């Protein structure tokens, strides 16, 4: 399961990094030229990783409660 999570995280970061390099509107160009796009990608990645860990923790708690109710 952890290999899937690592793959998803890497795919997510790669996607946003490639999207940030593409020449788009002026806001994207400004972020890329000033180097702030790396900060934006890092913040989005941290939020995504946090959501994944929260969902895993929640799934474990739900599984534990389901086992207790079956007994």
Please give a structural write-up.
The protein has 71 residues and is an all-alpha fold. The chain has one domain (2-70). It is built from three helices and no strands. The longest helix has 34 residues, at 37-70.
Assembly annotation: single chain
Number of H- or I-type helical stretches: 3
As a percent range, the share of helical residues equals over 70%
Instruction: State the separation between the terminal residues, measured CA to CA.
Output: 27 Å
Biggest sheet overview = none
Integer tally of domains: 1
> Spans with pLDDT under 50 lasting ≥5 residues?
none
Using only CA atoms, what is the Rg?
18 Å
N-to-C order of helices and strands: HHH
Strand content: under 5%
Shape, per Cα inertia axes? elongated
Which structural class is indicated by helix and strand composition?
mainly alpha
Report the count of strand segments: 0
Tell me, rounded to a whole number, the average pLDDT. 81
